[in-house]
Amino acid sequence: MGQLRRPTLAHTAAQGHRDNRLLAALPPDTLALLDRDLRQVSLQQGAILLEPGDPLEDIYFPQTGLISLLVIGRDGGAIETATVGREGAVGLHGGLGGRRSFTRATTQIGGRFSTIRAGRFEHIANGSAYVRDLILRYTEVLLAEAQQIGACNAMHAARARLCRWLLQCADRTGRNELPLIQEFLAQMVGVRRTTVTLLAQEMQVRGLIKYRRGRIVLLDRKGLEECACECYDIMCHEKLAPALGVHF
Amino acid sequence: MPMYYFHLYDDETIVDIDGTDLINVEAAEKHAAGVARELTAKTTGFLDQNWSGWTMRVHDNNGLELFSLAMSDFRDGNSGK
Question: Rounded to two decimals, what is the model's pTM?
Answer without folding.
Answer: 0.89
